[in-house]
Amino acid sequence: MTIAFRPLRRDDFPLLRTWLEHPHVAHWWNHETGPDDLERDFGGSVDGTEPGEDLLAMDDGVPVGLVQRSRLVDYADYLEEFAALTQVPYEAVTIDYLVGDPGRVGQGLGTAMIRAAVADTWATRPGTGTILVAVVAANTASWRALEKAGFRRVAEGPMEPDNPLDDPLHYVYRQDRGDDGGGVAAAVTGSG
């Protein structure tokens, strides 16, 4: 499986809405999915006015998931939550991810997407040496995928969960440039 990325576009919003409404995503992402909600939450990255990136993950040209990537220094509140639990290098990046198709869950796609996002980060952000990811402790599938992708748990503690029904306990995972074992190819293609 070769994962490639391209920037999310507005014409992807209907597909994204479907993904966000699937139960395996809805609990952990806890997103409102109306057109105005998607515009509010994703329109800025589509327009380039938001510092974070929303990347559509493609497997052999077929959309399979979403990866969000941002520098922690661009999101002061989130940076503060991380810094309360672990050291945060200045250029540290964080990612979030979802596997959209419920039929692809549990088949290694999440791990492949994470590995590809790491490889792409190292390739496109030469000043970045660390990726930090916070995961609700109860989201076992997510933190196991991170571990399979070479991340190591470096901290745990309370952070604001996306879903208010979740316990605030989060695990913080870290991968530094050179820790990933290399060899995972990823590409970011144009917004076409």
UniProtKB/TrEMBL annotation:
It comes from the Bacteria. Keywords: Acyltransferase, Antibiotic resistance, Transferase. It holds the Pfam family Acetyltransf_8. Residues 3-178 form the N-acetyltransferase domain. Its EC number is 2.3.1.82. GO terms for molecular function: aminoglycoside 6'-N-acetyltransferase activity. The keyword DNA-binding does not apply. GO terms for biological process: response to antibiotic. The keyword Acyltransferase applies. InterPro entries: Acyl_CoA_acyltransferase (IPR016181), GNAT_dom (IPR000182). This is Aminoglycoside 6'-N-acetyltransferase. It comes from Jiangella mangrovi. The lineage of its organism: Bacteria, Bacillati, Actinomycetota, Actinomycetes, Jiangellales.
